[in-house]
Write a structure and sequence with these properties.
alpha+beta; four-stranded antiparallel sheet; single chain
Length: 168
């Protein structure tokens, strides 16, 4: 899910005059999918022009405390059947399938998208944390982030073989 956005951002960065190639990585911020150190690699006006072009394509850009730019763009919900899995990934999918409620899912969606790109191990670790959080939300009668289901289903389907091999 992140690859097309990364490719779009790489193309935008390639069009920007720079002193050195800027870094582009997954963001560690819950508010963004990607981050770049473009302000350190380009002149101020070139950075401003880059931001203007990116925002015209639907990107939301903010500055991080460390001077990097945080890059975020909505990712359309993938169309994917919910795989039947065991372990923490299967539990999360089951909870979200049974409790599809209109809870805010934006932060969770970003986490799943970043974890999918990072690999099966990261996705499984995220599901372990997510499962505990979803169960706590149910106990407190809070809505679950129902919009998360197609993103998590897609990520789990992408890494299904590795997830199924893992013994819990």
């Amino acid at each position: 899910m992140l690859k097309p956005l990364r490719a779009e951002m790489n193309a935008l960065l390639a069009e920007t005059p720079v002193r050195r190639k800027p870094a582009l990585r997954r963001s560690s911020s819950p508010e963004a999918l990607l981050a770049t150190d473009l302000p350190y690699a380009a002149e101020r006006q070139d950075t401003v022009d880059f931001i203007r072009r990116a925002e015209a394509l639907g990107w939301r850009i903010s500055a991080a405390e460390n001077g990097w730019l945080l890059l975020d763009k909505p990712v359309p919900a993938p169309d994917c059947a919910v795989p039947e899995l065991q372990g923490p990934c299967g539990c999360c999918l089951s909870l979200l399938t049974r409790h599809q409620e209109p809870g805010d899912a934006r932060v969770y969606i970003r986490e799943v998208i970043r974890a999918e790109e990072a690999g099966a191990g990261e996705l499984i670790r995220l599901c372990e944390r997510l499962h505990a959080g979803l169960a706590a939300m149910l106990r407190r009668h809070q809505p679950l982030p129902g919009e998360l289901l197609p993103y998590l289903a897609h990520a789990c389907q992408t890494h299904r073989e590795t997830i199924e091999k893992r013994k819990d």
